[in-house]
Write a structure and sequence with these properties.
Elements: E1 2-3, E2 6-11, E3 20-21, E4 28-29, E5 32-36, E6 56-57, E7 66-73, E8 80-87, E9 103-111, E10 136-145, H1 148-154, E11 189-192, E12 196-200, E13 209-216
Parallel strand pairs: 2-8, 9-13
Antiparallel strand pairs: 1-10, 2-5, 3-4, 6-7, 7-8, 9-10, 11-12, 12-13
Length: 224
């Protein structure tokens, strides 16, 4: 799971050291979670089915829903910065577990089409007038679940695609067979749920994760 524009949700009735393992691969569920900013509205409506004040919704892979109880805004921008919620889980009296890191910070790059239309040559002022002047979108504060480490360890993906890079070898020496080296970060590919497919940028480091969008989950109707 990947969140491009994270909005902090604090589940007030959970202890600070709460830890619950969600379904699928290992995903820590803690007191503080992050949702897409577009998944919350401070004013609810009948045709809106995501989180809003007083509304109860489910979180993906989490067994019980949450109810939004209040929210905080930035006084300068009037933008919602934090949502407070209640976890609708029956009390079971279990002891809290030691919390683990539940997310990894990342920079996500999305590259839009170079031209604004499907036929730039048809532009009356020439194809250069049809160039998209803002083809790259950067989400500098994105967050991805800690289960990404499992994806990183399984790289390259898919293995049969020949992603493993050949080690440096003397090409003039035909008797010497090139050997396989550790795959580059760009061989790490995955689907961000509800977002798109991504790969890790080759400039990415252990402390600075950079992701590049490969393809959208849903293309425009007019595209071939």
């Amino acid at each position: 799971m990947l969140v491009l524009e994270p909005l902090t949700v604090i589940i007030d009735d959970l202890d600070d050291d709460h830890l619950e393992m969600a379904e699928s691969h290992t995903i820590p569920f803690t007191k503080t979670v992050y949702i897409e900013r577009g998944d919350f509205r401070d004013v609810d409506s009948d045709d809106y089915f995501r989180l809003a004040p007083g509304k109860t919704v489910g979180l993906l892979k989490v067994p019980f829903p949450i109810t939004a109880t209040s929210f905080e805004k930035d006084p300068r921008t009037e933008q919602v910065i934090t949502v407070h919620a209640k976890y609708e889980k029956p009390s079971d009296g279990s002891a809290p577990k030691k919390p683990k890191r539940s997310h990894i910070k990342a920079t996500v790059r999305a590259f839009n089409p170079l031209f604004k239309s499907n036929n730039p040559a048809a532009h009356p002022d020439g194809f250069l007038a049809d160039i998209n002047l803002d083809p790259e979108q950067i989400s500098a504060h994105a967050m991805i679940e800690s289960g990404f480490e499992e994806i990183r360890q399984r790289a390259p993906s898919p293995a049969e695609a020949g992603e493993r890079q050949l080690a440096d070898a003397d090409e003039t020496n035909s008797a010497k067979k090139p050997q396989q080296a550790t795959p580059g970060p760009e061989s790490i590919r995955f689907q961000g749920m509800r977002v798109a497919y991504f790969c890790v940028d080759r400039e990415s480091t252990k402390d600075d994760l950079i992701l590049n969008k490969i393809v959208s989950l849903k293309e425009d109707v007019g595209k071939v």
